[in-house]
Amino acid sequence: MHSTSAQASVHDDVFTVSGEGLDFDALVSVAREGARIRLDDDALVRVAETREAIDALAADVVPHYGVSTGFGALASKFIPADQRAQLQASLIRSHAAGSGDAVETEVVRAMMLLRLRTLLTARTGVRPEVVRLYADLLNAGITPVVHEYGSLGCSGDLAPLSHVALALMGEGQVVDREGIRRPTAEALAAAGLEPVTLREKEGLALVNGTDGMLGQLIMAITDLRALLDTADLAAAMSVEALLGTDRVFAADLQRLRPHAGQQVSAAQIAGALAGSPLVASHAGPDDPRVQDAYSLRCAPQVHGAARDTVDHATRVAEVEAMSAIDNPVVTPDGRVESNGNFHGAPVAYVLDFLAIAVADVASVSERRTDRMLDPARSHGLPPFLAANPGVDSGLMIAQYTAAGIVSELKRLAAPASVDSIPSSAMQEDHVSMGWAAARKLRRAIDGLTRVVSIEILTAARALEFRAPLESSPTITTARAAIREVVAEVGPDRFLAPEIESVVGLTRNGVFAQLAQQ
């Protein structure tokens, strides 16, 4: 799992981009690791052929939307040929109206790669030189500054994509490969690149897409797959620490309710507990407990439901990533037709759905953490796992931190996509708010990362108090990784850095990889 705000670095792989679907791993590599791209030659030929149809329409005395007319509520106004370059420039400048903090480099790079893929479908009508410059910006590590606010998720991510398009014109601000913000014209010159003058149709083609919300969805899917594996390992560690049973995770019991995600999580939790002396120590008929609490026993059901939600979101993202999102579009027979494919509803819905799943997985994780800290429910563990309870507070406030995050995640689970504020003089009278759904999901994923990491930190400490009983081989390996960055139980010490150290292990995929073994 990767940091959500890291500056893209140089990556050795080179990925070919065509107008077909886009591999999610390639997108993550380009967005987060600075991987380079090359353009498919056949796709560029088709782009040039489609541009010929736009040039023909531009010479027509009959108005054609996006070619020789204004935009949005001004679509009925015919624009003379000598004003169309100004029309395109004015469109981009006026629509680059974002506000707030700059969004993460990886978000902008993902958005750019997805827009580039749509341009290569040859359904947008841009010239090949526009496509090439878009690719050159990515390969040069030049990232336009895009702001937090501005997209309503309909007519595409207009403001975010307009800030990117502004860079193609040599205007606005960018961040270079070293992470330094500078004027676009200066960065282009340093990279040996020339800006373009946009012609008919090209302004709309650069901004009418769901690429911002889709890029964030694809990266969220990648992160959540790793986080759900991590949550499975965390649950297994908590089961061990709380002297729980592994019998409830048996495959035959899970097959009685054969949801796919549930089967995966149950198998991973059972696998992480396999060979555990701790579990075996109380597995006989003398164990007085009939069944464990829901947060332990039902972990596969909760984690599995989240997995199934991620799978559903993946199917939506796969369709969106092979679509030609623009308005108007150039059809294969040369027509230029208006459409509504830019509406972000399909993507917005699953972004919101994932935020619900994230909140619930974090909630059940926090409940397991709290149980390990409560001597009334922890089956012999000291209060708050303190070395000297009373003098020491142990992990008391770590649970507060997890609880505060979970409360925030519940607020972030409120859907953005149910809202709509009309725009463009009521021409755009229903919008998706998909960008907002994407932004809050990113924050939610960061919160889940921290909550699950606190559970792992807590369980590792709890297991120290179970000595001399030993953990399973998988959990022993996890505990060893934690002990490399966090000291063993002792008097209270500055806790925040220890939490961040375990968060770092989670983000680097250490625990996810162990869960998959």
TrEMBL record:
Swiss-Prot/TrEMBL keywords: Histidine metabolism, Lyase
EC number: 4.3.1.3
Pfam families: Lyase_aromatic
SUPFAM superfamilies, A to Z: L-aspartase-like (SSF48557)
PROSITE patterns registered for this protein in UniProt: PAL_HISTIDASE
Top-level lineage group: Bacteria
Catalytic activity, as annotated: L-histidine = trans-urocanate + NH4(+)
Subcellular location, principal: cytoplasm
NCBIfam families: hutH, PRK09367.1
Family: Belongs to the PAL/histidase family.
The protein, known as: Histidine ammonia-lyase
